[in-house]
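Batch manifest, entry 17 of 40.
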Amino acid sequence: LLEMEHSLPDARRFLESWAVGDEIPTELPAWIETFDVRDWDAMLLKYVIPKLEATLRDDLRIDPRHQNMQPLEQVLKWADIIRPSTFSHFLETEFFPKWLDILFIWLIQPGVSFEEVTQWYSFWKDTFKESVQALPGIDRGFTRGLELMNKAIELGPDAPTHLERIDFRAGMQIGSSSEAGR
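Output type: structure tokens
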């Protein structure tokens, strides 16, 4: 018990000074057990999540020709530590709008290779482990991507002029409010 009492300030200090490129300490699961769920979530919201959001917003560039996965990989390390609804929400906010914009730009190119787009889609989806893919917001993001791809295929040569850009953030708010009542 005395050892755990000493770990509480250590956990707060670690989370406060933690930088996205740093490793997650192996003792973190033990620290989680010593905190009330609300206190733990509050610490993550204050010290960790803003750094992860900034990494996705500022460091992750979606580039089909040369993709640097490191920023996303650093964020995904926290998938089992952060409350699933919170994790899903900030990926919806910071990842999917960028990802869908690049998908849209690719789909409106004349002579787009749908085979390449499909491989790219699969690459991204497979980057997320199944438990993260199953989160409602993540599933919604990839479903919107599939819908966009299907609409582009349906439009065929008219896709460059008739495919509509997805406003994922607007759809996210609608989806989140309907899920809140469940």
